[in-house]
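dumping this here so i dont lose it
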């Protein structure tokens, strides 16, 4: 069985994230890492591989040169190999274009099951799994907190606010997993050393037969019109309660605008 795990290299949420001059996310002046939510996808792929014979786990990412760091993390966790789609023409590609590139790469690599996180920690749209399933023409089972494969079926549990659902889909299929699916393992020293010897293929748009006019900032379906720095925090209002605290608080709230 072939499992492809889609992972993303994202700016560190603890850093000073900002937009570049062209209003795309600035990925050069801030440290990046494997999206935390994608670590759960890698973990579930590895658990499935541990339960099945002759299973190969491939980590796939689309991004600039530094995106290889996300692949190295996935390989050190236990993935067998990695594919990096890198091309200058991809700069500014939105979720529609990214799903096209991922789908082409997945089809070229060959797959039985595609696993992704529930969303990326930068864009946080959460629609890539559904777009991939549509482009690949296969069923999807998304937002799973439990996943397994048996008898040519992928099965899982989706937890809602009031109830849980049991889902199943015949392979090939696309699934996404939540941060409740199981704690991701830490790479061991042995895993980190082994990752250095694992194959990493690099593909560009021509390798995937994708025209430059299908991707990139100028051809994106969505765009950021404007952005401004977050206002600096100001000192709060201190209410000294000498019997009139409630009235002071009510008066303060009455003067605020809430959206």
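and the seq i came up w/
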């Amino acid at each position: 069985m072939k499992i492809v795990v889609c992972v993303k290299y994202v700016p560190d949420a603890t850093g000073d994230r900002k937009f570049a001059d062209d209003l795309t996310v600035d990925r050069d002046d801030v440290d990046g890492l494997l999206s935390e939510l994608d670590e759960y996808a890698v973990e579930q792929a590895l658990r499935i591989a541990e339960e099945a014979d002759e299973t190969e786990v491939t980590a796939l990412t689309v991004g600039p040169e530094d995106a290889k760091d996300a692949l190295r993390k996935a390989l050190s966790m236990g993935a067998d190999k990695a594919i990096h789609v890198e091309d200058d023409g991809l700069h500014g590609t939105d979720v529609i274009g990214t799903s096209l590139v991922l789908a082409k790469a997945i089809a070229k690599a060959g797959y039985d099951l595609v696993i992704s996180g529930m969303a990326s920690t930068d864009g946080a749209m959460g629609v890539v799994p559904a777009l991939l399933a549509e482009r690949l023409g296969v069923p999807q089972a998304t937002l799973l907190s439990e996943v397994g494969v048996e008898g040519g079926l992928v099965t899982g549990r989706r937890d809602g606010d009031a109830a849980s659902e049991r889902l199943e889909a015949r392979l090939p299929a696309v699934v996404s997993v939540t941060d409740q699916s199981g704690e991701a393992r830490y790479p061991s020293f042995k895993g980190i050393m082994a990752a250095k010897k694992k194959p990493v293929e690099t593909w560009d748009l021509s390798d995937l037969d994708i025209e430059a006019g299908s991707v990139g900032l100028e051809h994106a379906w969505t765009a950021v019109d404007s952005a401004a720095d977050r206002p600096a925090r100001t000192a709060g209002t201190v209410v000294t309660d000498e019997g009139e605290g409630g009235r002071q608080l009510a008066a303060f709230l009455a003067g605020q605008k809430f959206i």
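Residues 36-51 form the longest helix (16 residues).
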